[in-house]
Amino acid sequence: MASGVATVWVPVDDMDRAVAFYGQTLGLDVTSTSPDWSEIDAGGLMIGLNGREETATRSAGGAVISFQPDGGLDDEVARLKDAGVEFTGPISDHEWGRIAPFKDSEGNDLQFYAPPA
Question: I need a surface site. Which of 8, 42, 89, 110 has the fewest CB within 10 A?
Fold first, then answer.
């Protein structure tokens, strides 16, 4: 039986670029770095940046990490667009909440999620 999620592994091609994206662009805490493995604290969930894997830009599908924005979803999308982040679609509204899909610096799928108002 699984007792929880220990780590989410994210494949990266360029560790320095990925660490800058998660640490500086998204504003998450970088807890350790090395050429092959770096750790990001995403509010108690550890994201491991794995420099030994191929990124999603070489394949279709895969996991998506959803983040909760600190402020309003629209404001955070605008901030990231100003920082050059690639959004793969507009903000979409659903009965279960709002999402804004984007790519990290390595082409992996991410999104912001905001619960319904």
Answer: 89
